[in-house]
Amino acid sequence: MGFFAWWAKCQDLSGIHKVMDGEIVAQLCVYILTWNVGGHYPHDISLNDALSLNGTVCPNNSDVPDIYVIGFQEVNTQPQNQIMNYFQDDQWTFRVKEHLDDMGFIKVGSERLQGMLINMWVQPKHISHIKQIETQNTKTGFGGLWGNKGAVSIRLSLYGTGVAFVASHLAAHDEKLRERVEDYDQIVDNHHYKAPRFRNIFDHNFVFWFGDLNFRLDSHDSVWDIRNTVEQGRLDELYQFDQLKLVRETGNAFSLMEERKPNFPPTFKFIEGTSDYNLKRRPAWCDRILYRLQAPDCPDVQLNLQQLSYKSHPEYTLSDHKPVSAEFLITIKAEYTDDELYVMTHGCGIISLPLVRLIFTSFYLTMF
């Protein structure tokens, strides 16, 4: 067998030094938060609860996750603020920084599109296992001409696997379901990266898609009926009419994604400064977090994604939305180091010289 035929077989690295059969290369807790802040500034608001800094459910003998990924929508977009943001962090990023800096987290990626913002923060011990960080955005407002709606994202190689985090804000209002589906299609079609083998969102092994997705309830119940149903705790009845659930089932949008059923009340629309529903709009689960796992077509590699929590944070009354968070446990199990796994998943065009020497040495040792 020639070298390139050998390499093409999902790069059969059987000649390369293995760690131990079935060893866990990495196990990481990822915390995702999404919040439509309604154009408000954070001022002196505490994010301790939103970030679960008083204790998470991560099973890593730590009080904090390994990675935070935070998506905000409707961050203030006044022209003077956008100019200042070119030179310094916006106020929401700075507020998160104030909470996470003391715990040693490092911001490794950020992307903004008008009112949409995504940040990623990582514990220092993982930095050397992160490669090829890219950010991207896609406008979907006014037929793709305006960035009031759309998506911002961060993708990276994490311990040799491809991971994408997509935060989006889709078309609003009950009757705009078709526009929300069109927004989703535009993002999927137009959101591209430079990393070989991971050009598109769904090329990645792990995908997390979250934000104010704006899906409403596809029923004729009045706002008062819905409020009463929520107050009586009959959330399962409402969920049957959830538009996101329905479009996933019909394959019209997000059909490649999974979501744990929300067991918290609808997160929109509240009277600002209270936890009372604003009866000008029908309550709905607008703020969502979805996920996807796709194992690589490579031998002896096992990936696992376990959702640990999915909750809203009702004590926040700043905007007409409640923040929503989710925690996930990523497990990467392989017979290779994460550098070797990186070669397998990302292709030979980006291999470092030491790895090239290692691969060729291993190849010739197996041949002769």
UniProtKB/TrEMBL annotation:
One of its GO terms (biological process) is phosphatidylinositol dephosphorylation. GO terms for molecular function: phosphatidylinositol-4,5-bisphosphate 5-phosphatase activity. SUPFAM superfamilies: DNase I-like. One of its GO terms (cellular component) is ruffle. InterPro entries: Endo/exonu/phosph_ase_sf, IP5, IPPc. It comes from the Eukaryota. Residues 26-336 form the Inositol polyphosphate-related phosphatase domain. Pfam families: Exo_endo_phos2. Gene3D superfamilies: Endonuclease/exonuclease/phosphatase. This is Inositol polyphosphate-related phosphatase domain-containing protein.
